[in-house]
Amino acid sequence: MSIAKVIEITASSATSVEDAVKSGLKKTAETVKGIQGAWVNEIKVVTGADGSIREWRVNLRITFVIE
Q: For 44, which of 39, 57, 58, 67 could close a Cys bridge (C-beta 3.0–4.6 Å)?
């Protein structure tokens, strides 16, 4: 029998949504072991006054197995 836990984090990137997800997972993996997957709950952008995208932000629900 195994038990999984889900945590929620927010990550950001000036480059892309994919980069925000990758950096969020990489940082979480520094302290959380046994990551099994993640859901992208929400995507947000921070814009400049001219409408340009300055930053991508994602909310992630990360699942990991409790040992």
A: 57
Alpha-carbon separation of residue 6 from 3, 16, 23, 32, 58 (angstroms):
10, 24, 18, 11, 16
DSSP letter string, 36-53 = EEEEEEEEEEEE-TTS-E
- Show the 3-state SS of 3-33: EEEEEEEEEEECCCHHHHHHHHHHHHHCCCC
Structure confidence by residue, pLDDT tens digits, 1-23: 889 999 999 999 999 999 999 99
Cα 9 from Cα 62, distance rounded (Å): 8
Bridge partners, residue 57, by sequence: 12, 44
pTM: 0.89
